[in-house]
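Practice problem 4.
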């Protein structure tokens, strides 16, 4: 009997355990199902997060472009309306998340195709605000200001009839007139722009400096007067006094996809997108990537640098400042003598020559000064290899050729253009190539002192130029967003590279088939001349104003409006070293032995550096 009882108890326990096992299996299956649901939810969340990050970056770029458009339009408003429009823009920049929610809630009830910002008076005759375009607030403010102005004019007329003193309809006009804004003056049908800001920067170009703004005249020609301002030192076809307006909290609006159309703006820059947000930036060795490689027009990929990128022979480690040369004017062009004995700095109306053979004595005065271009800014100066002849061009129709031994002018060349932005010479120094403001590349024979050809050039000003290492091809960049390669034997264009940004500087590697291009969109593009490959480098925080290869071809220097001097490994752009000056760095040159670097800046001086290996 006891044996049977034990069997019954074992049977009961077995049944109990079997039931528990089935229950656990059911629980496990339920958990597996929940796990799959959570996994799908997690993947969907990750996809949404990546999409939101991408959309945020995209909307930031859209906001930036819309802001630039608004800034261009504001300057065409009457002076008494500009302040109100700018106040509306500032109000939009500082909108808070709570106010955004309020706007969206009001929009869900109103549904009208305009949006008023909190605190802005309603427009008479308009229904409640809807959730469409926030920039309509600027137009609304302008309309309101116009009505206020008309009412004030009416009151002024009434007060004049009654003999009372009229009130000003725009109390901030005095403040606006004293702010840092360009003055556009008209004299004899010619427009010129003069911007005087405190930090005295200038937009320049030439062999390593960016072109000036092109202000259209009434007859369709372009003014090439110098622009001196850090706030306006991004060259463009139309100079905008509000280009440097800080977006501030405007980025808070960037995650509101309902405010903007979902499509990508034309010309959106992939490299800027890749480097815009840390969350979406690829990491290499734990650091954000700044060099991106493109092959056969494929996708842009972060560059993996070789192990010897920073340690190979002939690659510099750093540089040390040796001298500051107080030129006294903005230094738009610089060059170093082949024997490292002298430095030539070009500013406004003259080239100054400095003896640097005794670096320890730190000379503070030039040994001589050559008057050039009738007090116009010099954009480029080229030195013959024997050191006896200097060619100077800039914001004037003339190009000067100087005999440095006699310190006399040999002859002048008339470009028949308003300016010559950049110069290049053939290897035998018998031919001169000049980038002109009308986009043409004009060629002169320096022996016969005569023009021997013209390349059709760019659709807008030709801004930079350099010769290939074999001397058979010419590379030019322009404000028409193109880089072009020319066959000098056939005098015709071989290839053309189209970009979404103006080209400010350009250099050919002396040893390899690479051309580096400095651009208005802050990027440096390194192009292969023999295969469909390029590198996009994004370290500058503003436009790249000058660029120069070392004679070894192993590295090159770029400088920018962000005050930065960057050294890059050819061609993939590993950053070797970087430093900053106190103002925009407008021009640069590397000595023949790659031991010295000279820069010209907006704070009216040149700086001489020793490159350390």
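Answer key:
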């Amino acid at each position: 009997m006891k044996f049977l009882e034990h069997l019954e108890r074992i049977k009961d326990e077995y049944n109990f355990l079997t039931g528990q096992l089935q229950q656990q299996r059911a629980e496990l299956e339920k958990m597996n199902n929940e796990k799959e649901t959570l996994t799908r939810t997690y993947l969907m969340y990750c996809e949404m997060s990546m999409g939101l990050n991408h959309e945020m970056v995209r909307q930031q770029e859209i906001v930036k472009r819309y802001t630039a458009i608004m800034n261009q339009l504001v300057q065409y408003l009457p002076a008494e309306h500009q302040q109100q429009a700018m106040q509306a823009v500032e109000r939009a920049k500082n909108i808070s998340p709570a106010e955004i929610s309020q706007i969206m809630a009001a929009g869900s009830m109103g549904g009208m195709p305009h949006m008023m910002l909190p605190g802005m008076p309603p427009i008479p005759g308009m229904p409640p605000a809807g959730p469409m375009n926030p920039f309509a607030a600027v137009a609304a403010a302008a309309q309101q200001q116009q009505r206020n102005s008309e009412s004030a004019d009416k009151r002024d007329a009434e007060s004049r009839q009654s003999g009372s003193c009229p009130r000003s309809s725009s109390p901030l006009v005095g403040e606006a007139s004293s702010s840092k804004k360009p003055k556009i003056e008209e004299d004899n049908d010619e427009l010129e722009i003069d911007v005087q800001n405190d930090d005295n920067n200038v937009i320049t170009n030439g062999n390593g400096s960016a072109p000036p703004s092109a202000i259209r005249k009434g007859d369709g020609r372009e003014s090439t007067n110098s622009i001196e301002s850090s706030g306006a030192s991004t060259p463009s076809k139309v100079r905008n006094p509000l280009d440097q307006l800080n977006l501030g909290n405007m980025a808070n609006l960037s995650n509101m996809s309902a405010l903007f159309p979902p499509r990508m703006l034309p010309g959106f820059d992939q490299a800027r997108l890749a480097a815009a947000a840390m969350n979406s930036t690829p990491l290499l060795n734990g650091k954000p990537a700044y060099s991106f490689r493109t092959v056969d027009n494929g996708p842009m990929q972060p560059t993996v640098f070789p192990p010897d990128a920073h340690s190979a022979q002939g690659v510099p480690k750093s540089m040390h400042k040796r001298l500051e040369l107080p030129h006294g004017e903005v230094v738009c062009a610089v060059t170093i003598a082949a024997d490292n004995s002298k430095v030539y700095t070009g500013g406004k109306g003259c080239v100054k020559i400095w003896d640097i053979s005794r670096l320890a004595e730190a000379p503070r005065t030039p040994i001589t000064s050559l008057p050039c271009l009738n007090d116009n800014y010099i954009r480029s100066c080229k030195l013959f290899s024997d050191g006896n002849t200097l060619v100077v061009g800039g914001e004037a129709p003339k190009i000067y050729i100087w005999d440095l031994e006699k310190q006399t002018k040999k002859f002048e060349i008339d470009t028949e253009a308003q300016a010559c932005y950049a110069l290049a010479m053939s290897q035998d120094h018998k031919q001169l190539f000049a980038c002109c403001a009308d986009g043409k590349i004009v060629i002169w024979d320096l022996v016969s002192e005569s023009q021997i050809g013209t390349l059709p050039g760019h659709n807008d000003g030709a801004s930079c130029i350099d010769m290939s290492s074999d001397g058979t091809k010419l590379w030019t960049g322009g404000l028409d967003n193109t880089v072009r390669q020319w066959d000098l034997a056939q005098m015709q264009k071989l290839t053309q590279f189209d970009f979404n940004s103006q080209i400010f500087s350009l250099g050919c590697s002396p040893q390899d088939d690479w051309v580096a291009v400095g651009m208005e969109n802050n990027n440096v593009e390194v192009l292969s001349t023999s295969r469909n490959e390029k590198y996009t480098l994004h370290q500058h925080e503003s436009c790249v104003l000058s660029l120069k290869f070392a004679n070894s071809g192993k590295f090159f220097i770029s400088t920018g409006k962000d005050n930065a001097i960057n050294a890059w490994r050819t061609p993939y752009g590993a950053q070797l070293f970087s430093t900053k000056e106190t103002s925009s760095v407008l021009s640069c040159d590397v000595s023949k032995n790659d031991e010295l670097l000279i820069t010209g800046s907006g704070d009216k001086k040149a700086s001489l550096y020793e490159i350390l290996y």
